[in-house]
Design a protein that fits this description.
Elements lengths: L2 H6 L3 H59 L3
Keywords: Membrane, Transmembrane, Transmembrane helix
Pfam families: DUF5326
Protein name: DUF5326 family protein
Length: 73
């Protein structure tokens, strides 16, 4: 008797309710830790991209302003 035969003889609620609930209880902390890590990493990547974009914008703005004022001399 293999696992497929074992699960096929069980009622539907065991396969579709009890087993997933047990898996969430056992692995819930791991799943939430992984999801939290991924969300935190994506947030940090977005903050990094925003900061780099802001620095590039400021550098271009000030270098274009200083080069146009030097051209008047």
């Amino acid at each position: 008797m293999d696992a497929k035969d074992t699960f096929s003889s069980l009622p539907w609620w065991v396969k579709w309710i009890a087993v997933p609930v047990i898996a969430l209880v056992v692995f819930g902390g791991l799943i939430s830790a992984i999801v939290g890590f991924i969300v935190g990493l994506l947030f940090k990547v977005l903050v990094f991209a925003a900061l780099v974009g802001g620095v590039v914008y400021l550098v271009r703005r000030f270098t274009s302003a200083s080069s146009s004022s030097r051209g008047g001399w």
